[in-house]
Amino acid sequence: MTDIVLKIISFISILIIIKFFLLLILDIFKVQYPFKNLVLQYRLHFLFIISTVGVLGSLFLSAILGLQVCNLCWYQRIFLFPIPILALIGIYKQDAHTRLYIFALSLVGFGFALYHSLLQSSIFKRDAVFCNPNSTLIDCSIPSFTYFGFVTVPVISAAIFILISYVAYTKSKK
Fold it and tell me: Where are the domains of the chain?
């Protein structure tokens, strides 16, 4: 059962990454797509939903499936967990500038996720700062699982942060 759930989560992450690059290409060529206006109109609502799914997914992986959390995973959580709260405050106060704070958090979180992914793929050598062998937490450089040849927990995290960053940054047509 756990294997099937992780494969589904991994597949959804791949779809998110593909969708991000397709939307990015459409934006580069200034192609208007119908979904964009909806996203711009309800940006904070979408940011709340996406980030809440990310938070619940993170908690699901650790609390329900029992995956242990390493130091770098905790840093990614630090930048993900406040986003739904900020989005709700922005919705309540009708403050469109909230997206900028969310964008900043998601970029830093993405940086940690990218570094973590590269560390697990052995592009970077094991880091004594984040992956302290004397720590009580698990080793950051060893993936908990790998599906489709490259999808690990930090890749899933990076996909969520990419989507949050895109929605937070996308500009309206002026």
Answer: 2-169
